[in-house]
Amino acid sequence: MYDDIITSFKSIFAILNLKLFDDELKNYVLYELELLFNVVASSLEKHKLPMPDGRLLSEIRNKLLREEFNYNIADPICQHSSAFPQLNKCQLNFIIVLLNRSLKKDKN
């Protein structure tokens, strides 16, 4: 992973003789590890490993937030359109009760 980060940075910044300080490299390795742990709903912290510095951590949080909101809005609309007509009378009544209660709360 160490070598991959250096190679990646060299190609991104187009600097063949790029040098990184050990602390910087350590932070980027920890950052990449934290991203991998996040994929499986874990973290370095849960495994009692050091965390990357705060700047990189905030970048991870922002990325996770962006991913959370990055979904196709048409999918839930399509699912609703196909599922709603299949509701039985009891399920429809339940939804109506919930909507009415929600609307009453919004008015107060």
Tell me what the structure shows:
The chain has five helices and no strands. The protein is mainly alpha-helical and 108 residues long. It has two domains: 2-69, no CATH class; 76-107. The longest helix has 19 residues, at 89-107. The N and C termini lie far apart (56 Å).
The number of domains is 2
Report the total helices: 5
Return Rg in Å. Answer: 24 Å
- The helicity comes to 55-70%
End-to-end gap: 56 Å
Number of DSSP strand runs: 0
What characteristic shape results from the CA principal axes? elongated
- One letter per element, helices H and strands E, the order comes to HHHHH
Structural class computed from helices and strand pairing: mainly alpha
Mean pLDDT: 81
Strand content: under 5%
Largest sheet: none
- The low-confidence parts are none
Set down the secondary structure blueprint:
Layout: H1 2-13, H2 22-39, H3 54-69, H4 74-83, H5 89-107
List keywords for this structure.
single chain; mainly alpha; 2 domains; 0% strand
Brief write-up:
With 108 residues, the chain is mainly alpha-helical. Helix content is 69%, strand content 0%.
